[in-house]
Amino acid sequence: MASPEPKDKSYQRRTSPHSPPLRIIIVGAGLGGCAAAAALHHHGHEVVAVLDKVRAFNRLGDSLGLGENAYKLLARWGCSIKEIQEIGNQAPTMRIRRWHDGKVLAEQPLMDMAGYIGHRGDYHDIFLKWVRERGIPIRMGCEVVAYSDAAAPTPSLTLATGEVLTADVIVACDGIKSLARHLVLGAQDDPVSSGYACFRAYFEPSADMRADPARNAFLGEDSVNFWIGPDTHVVQNTLRGGREFNWILTHKDDGDVPESWFQPGDMDEVRRLVADIDPAIREAIKSTDKCLDWKICYRKPLPTWVSPESHRIVLLGDSCHAHLPTSAQGASQACESAGVLAVCLGLVARDEIRIGTRAYEKLRFPRTRVSQTHGEDLRDRWHNVLKNVDGDIEIDPEMVKIKNRPLYAFDAEQDAVDNWDEVSRKVREEFTKGEIEPLCN
Ligand SMILES: Cc1cc2nc3c(=O)[nH]c(=O)nc-3n(C[C@H](O)[C@H](O)[C@H](O)COP(=O)(O)OP(=O)(O)OC[C@H]3O[C@@H](n4cnc5c(N)ncnc54)[C@H](O)[C@@H]3O)c2cc1C
């Protein structure tokens, strides 16, 4: 039987400022949806249900990072982040290497990129457990097929079964292919190709591989390495305490890779692309049986994250701020958004929910743009720094270092409180004028 509160005795859930508490439905039980459930629960709101269309979660994806900016919020919400840290990669540093010979161009603490890197599926299991520990129902096999944005009495959603559910607020954490985004935008938005795709593989190295000096150079202990070259890079790291091995090869994409997490990759093409990479990693990649091919799709920044009529259906996570893999901040920014939404909904009266949701998008948009552009900047620096230079030229380490650390000091919830007066005043003015200013053009 799930207990309604986390076990940590020092944890204190906040009392709802509303009586009765706001009833909230979350669509999507990915990391974003689970973070939203934990945050809203902590701030005293009633999370009626988290809905997900899949019947069961598989261990999907591979390496994912969670930064300190997310940890501090999760800990505040009563989540035991030790559970995440224990299963994350424990390497103290990561090495950024030259493509053709593996020369270390820069070495920096792992924390500079993304805190502890772990398997997305393993982290997801822990997030789901946190939600269940709070007594919040996760309803699997519930596909949302339509939303109604009626301002009165409340917005609603319809499941594939025909069941209609209503709530004071609906939070759509339904991922990069979000259905809710179409409602919010009032139009279909097409994915934008980033110009790159990734071949990715993770597997348990065989005894043969472990014993083979041509393939085992990075298997002895937890490790994180990057090989950078013109228009390409490889990420390698170990997962589950070194028992699993992950490599990701980013390559130019001519636009014909479908937007999918499950597209099989062509290992012959991989072998061609890594033919001239550092021999220390080459054979480990070339001898891999199979991989996936992920198109790195992007969405243009959205002019709004909130539904136009009720202002009570809101987007959160990849549905409104997807990140490039090089940002290593997709899940962390979803956690930040979760905290800010929960804070904003706690600062408004029941009849002013729309002030809270519109303040939420205004507070979050600039912050997520900074973190998204960090990922673009890093990719561009890595892919260009060795172009048109002599193979042995010395590279200033600063040119290739990962510069995510400044993102960590930020406390998203505190920032929302600090800026509340100014932002909520602006939102009120916009409602008075009858014109909501778009987040971007
Ligand atoms: C399969 C997969 C693998 C990934 N692998 C990696 C990785 O290896 N490394 C990395 O950095 N990032 C990865 N990501 C991205 C990363 O998980 C996200 O950036 C981050 O966790 C925030 O995601 P989210 O919760 O907003 O969306 P998502 O993780 O996409 O979750 C959205 C959820 O909404 C559900 N959903 C969608 N539509 C509906 C609907 N109509 N009705 C009900 N439910 C719905 C989906 O089933 C899904 O569970 C992956 C994402 C996915 C989906």
From TrEMBL:
Top-rank lineage group of the source organism: Eukaryota
InterPro entries per record: FAD-bd (IPR002938), FAD-dep_Monooxygenase_BioMet (IPR050493), FAD/NAD-bd_sf (IPR036188)
GO MF annotation terms: FAD binding; monooxygenase activity
PROSITE patterns xref list: PROKAR_LIPOPROTEIN (PS51257)
All copies of domain FAD-binding, residue ranges: 24-351
Keyword Aminoacyl-tRNA synthetase: no
Keyword flag Oxidoreductase: yes
Alphabetical list of SUPFAM superfamilies matching this protein: FAD-linked reductases, C-terminal domain, FAD/NAD(P)-binding domain
Keyword entries, A-Z: FAD, Flavoprotein, Monooxygenase, Oxidoreductase
Pfam families membership: FAD_binding_3
Family annotation (Gene3D superfamilies): FAD/NAD(P)-binding domain
Family recorded in the similarity comment: Belongs to the paxM FAD-dependent monooxygenase family.
Name the record gives this protein: FAD-binding domain-containing protein
Organism, as annotated: Lasiosphaeris hirsuta
